[in-house]
Amino acid sequence: MNVPANLKYTKDHEWVLVEGAIATVGITDFAQGELGDIVYVEVETEGETLEQEAIFGTVEAVKTVSDLYLPLSGEIVEFNTLLESEPEKVNSDPYGDGWMVKVKISNPEQLDGLLDDAAYKALIGG
């Protein structure tokens, strides 16, 4: 199971990469493996400011649809439009081309509540 050490994680299996005031968010390798083949990613919250743990979109796999929860409060400033035509990137490259949204962080203190790689590995039994 791939759990990069440079990222933060949530109990809902999202990952966060912080670069200055912007956080890139996606779902973890564990999550995409549990979901199976992803066929559609829907994010209609671009331009909106949401609270931490608000639903920012959904990911649809062959057998299920799952909500996506925002790990940090902030404004959704970008959606990865590549996923409109190639949602399978979430399966093949969850920490790279499979990222979902970029968020302008409004409350940096919330980062302290996220899991590091060791805590996330413990959560998923890795």
Report on this structure.
With 126 residues, the protein is an alpha+beta fold. The protein has a single domain, classed as RNA polymerase II/Efflux pump adaptor protein, barrel-sandwich hybrid domain (OB fold (Dihydrolipoamide Acetyltransferase, E2P)), CATH 2.40.50.100. The protein has four helices and nine strands. It has helices at 29-35, 82-85, 89-92, 117-124; strands spanning 8-9, 14-19, 22-27, 38-42, 49-50, 55-61, 65-69, 74-79, 101-105. Strands 1-2-3-9-8-5 form a six-stranded antiparallel β-sheet. A three-stranded antiparallel β-sheet has the order 4-6-7. β1 and β2 (14-19) form a beta hairpin. The termini are close together. 35% of the residues are buried. The mean pLDDT is 97.
List keywords for this structure.
126 residues, 6-stranded antiparallel sheet, 18% helix, alpha+beta
Major sheet summary line: 6 strands, antiparallel
One letter per element, helices H and strands E, the order comes to EEEHEEEEEHHEH
Q: Can you tell me the overall shape? A: globular
Estimate nothing, just give the exact number of structural domains: 1
